UniProtKB/TrEMBL annotation:
InterPro entries, A to Z: HotDog_dom_sf (IPR029069)
Bias-annotated ranges (Basic and acidic residues): 160-170
Protein name, per record: Thioesterase domain-containing protein
Biased amino acid composition, Low complexity: 148-159
Signal peptide: none
UniProt region (Disordered), positions on chain: 146-170
Amino acid sequence: MTTGHDGGCFGCGSDNPIGLKLRCTAGPGLSLRASVVPAATNLRCIGPVPFGIISAILEESMGLLGGLVPTSMHVEHLSIDCDHFPHAEQELTVEAAIDEIVGDRICTSAVARSVGGRLVATATGTYVAEGALRPVRLFGSCNNQKGARAAEPPTAAPCAERRPYEWSHR
């Protein structure tokens, strides 16, 4: 997948000495699948994967969605709910999608799972586009429903109403 990032990108760059080295594949519509084994990154993660690394994996995966739209974007809001802290040797898979585009705001969501499909965390994000976009509203993609794929709108607050820097951990 071409994301517009270079080898130094923290999320997917092969030349970044402290990067995540996410492996990404574009999915249907405005979605992607990313995978990573935290212990295999340059972060030297061992034991249970810390919340901060799970958060970085989710945010970078949603940020890579910028490669699917014709503009650069940066994060304005991020909300993450962690359910499980997998061992660093396990591969984590993230399904991320653009759920809605309103003006210059891009609403995204992601679900991270470990081996056997066990839910690790869910996330929603609002990104600000640095160029004009056409309005889009997609349902049936990853959303804030604990990883469910629903034919109805997500229950998260609309893009414009989300508060910045909302973090939670169970």
